[in-house]
Amino acid sequence: MTSETLVEINDLNFSYDKRAILKGINMTMPRGKVIAIMGGSGCGKTTLLRLIGGAVAPSSGYVKIAGQVVHELGRDELFQIRRKMSMLFQFGALFTDLSVFDNVAFQMREHTNLPESVIRDLVLMKLHAVGLRGAHKLMPAELSGGMARRVALARSIALDPLLIMYDEPFTGLDPISLSVIGNLIRRLTDALGMTSIVVTHDVQESLKIVDYVYFISDGVIAAHGTPAEVRGSVAPFVHQFVHGEEDGPVPFHYPAETYASDLRLGSSLA
Amino acid sequence: MPRRIALGIRGVGHRVIDSVWRLGRASRFFMLTLLKSGISLRRFHLIIREIYFTGVLSLIIIVVSGLFVGMVLGLQGYETLQKYGSESAVGTLVALSLVRELGPVVAALLFASRAGSAITAEIGLMKATEQLAAMEMMAVDPIARVVAPRFWAGVISMPFLAAMFSAVGIFGGYLVTVVLIGVDEGSFWSQMQNAVDFRYDIVNGVIKTCVFGVAVTAIAVFEGYDAPPTAEGVSGATTRTVVTSSLAILGLDFVLTAFMFRGMS
Questions:
Q1: Are B200 and B97 in contact (CB under 8 A)?
Q2: Are A52 and A165 in contact, with CB atoms under 8 Å apart?
Q3: B89 CB contacts (<8 Å, ≥6 apart)?
Q4: What domains, with CATH codes, occur in chain A?
């Protein structure tokens, strides 16, 4: 592991109810980079984020963040390390009983003893970074999907984390919001010098902003490389995924009996 | 046929084991809530905010129900007592019924359906919309920050709501029997004062409300936290809160009454 590496994943295996979700994953994520983890729905991407965040423990292998093995940490140590990381949930997960301002101020009030006047300035600065300073009095129910995602982004950078994990940040957004969120992820990563892990299946948008891509299929890393390498890849899985082809290594049909036997053609012919 | 019987027995066994597991989880969760109450007790404004939602906003249903229950008690009590020429004892009947039984029990039942279901639905929806997971990822313990304030707010609100229920109920009884029917006001109040004992009636009633408060809010927060994170899960949890709380209130009421009032003349 180099000194520039923030997250190191080594031979990571995870099973749920005896079903293997992740099998022998190895990844290295340097500081200051945007890393994308791509794959079809249910391939284990979100589970990987949960493992990095310490929400679940691996069956074997480990995730190291800043040199600490996450699943070996006690609850207090885990909470200490979580103060250095942040997660943007798929639909923002804003606290619906708090205003936009209070959502962004939440961690500051919970984890620091900053006076309210300083918190106010910091919150407005964070909201300004995502373009929503003017919306600080609104409640989450009054925000559009894209705005909620931006507020959640402001909340996730509240304490200037070393690592932000984004769980499907582009899902359900219109093209303008999608582009805004993509650019914000890139700009904030560069400005704050943090590491961003973006779990997504939005290929075109993510390839514009990320430094490195891992493809996960069926619980293993199917391919990895820079966006340029990915675009030029002839590997069947990458090609199918990047170009959105219907059939290929990822089959269109769910495993089933033969079509003829399901339609009982064999028995009627017999 | 024997296979069906075996499957039936197995099903019953599974349900029993599941129930015992759930009871264990609930007990563990209750202990964790108590252990992690430090933050909410230190930052009391968190509890005050929840007292507003669970206690203050339940006042209307409590006051209106209390008034009608007291009025009905007054009417029924007068109807029966006048046959024996002791209609002046109607104040005693109304007050003792309310302070000992109806105040704590009916207020707790109303509290379970109004505030308990709201607590479960709120926590369940917070779970379903990943708000609790987000809090965990922010290194903030949801049990300390979300569950404990709601639990203590319920425990604190319940005795006050029951007291309000009984007070308004007695006023309802007064309205019907004294103002409308014309029972003597002096004997209404003086007989009530003589008959209601502070230690045996008021204190026991308050103890009941505290126990009901703990039971209802403990059930409500657990059901919300344990709810499957889906629309069906939250709706099922809300229903279970009302049903389980109501049964717990009635069961506990019998046990407490048996301990408190046995052998009294």
A1: no
A2: yes
A3: B81, B191, B195
A4: 5-233 (3.40.50.300)
Alpha carbon distance B213, A1 (integer Å): 55
Per-residue pLDDT band at A98 (split at 50, 70, 90): very high
Tell me the C-alpha distance between A140 and A152, whole Å.
10
Instruction: Give the chain A residue nearest B128 (alpha carbons).
Output: A93
Q: How many domains does chain B have?
A: 1
**Domain range for B119:** 27-256
Nearest to A93 among B122, B129, B145 (CB): B129
Please tell me the predicted confidence (pLDDT) of residue A119: 94
Contacts of B257 (CB under 8 A, 6+ apart): B100, B101
* Residue linked to tokens 């995924």: A241
Q: Is the CB of A180 inside 8 Å of chain B's CB atoms?
A: no
Q: Is residue B261 part of a domain?
A: no
User: What are the residues facing A38 on neighbouring strands?
Assistant: A200, A215
pLDDT band at A19 (very low <50, low <70, confident <90, very high): confident
DSSP B97: I
Tokens for B251, please give them. 């069961």
Coil, helix or strand for A160? coil
Residue B114 lies inside a defined structural domain of this protein: yes
What are the pLDDT digits (tens) for B131-178? 999 998 888 999 999 999 999 999 999 999 999 999 999 999 999 999
pTM greater than the 0.90 cutoff:
no
Tell whether ipTM is more than 0.90. no
Determine, yes or no, domain membership for B14. no
Residues B24-39, mean pLDDT to the nearest whole number: 93
CB contact under 8 A, A86 and B145: no
Inter-chain residue contact A80 with B137, CB threshold 8 Å: no
CB contacts, 8 Å: B129 with chain A: 91, 93, 96
Written as six digits, the tokens of B199 are 């230690």
How far is it, in rounded angstroms, from Cα A51 to Cα A48?
Answer: 5
Contact status of A171 with chain B (Cβ, < 8 Å): no
How many C-beta neighbours within 10 Å does residue B210 have? Answer: 16
pLDDT band at A2 (very low <50, low <70, confident <90, very high): very low
**Do residues A49 and A199 touch, judged by C-beta distance below 8 A?**
yes
pLDDT (0 to 100) of residue B241: 96
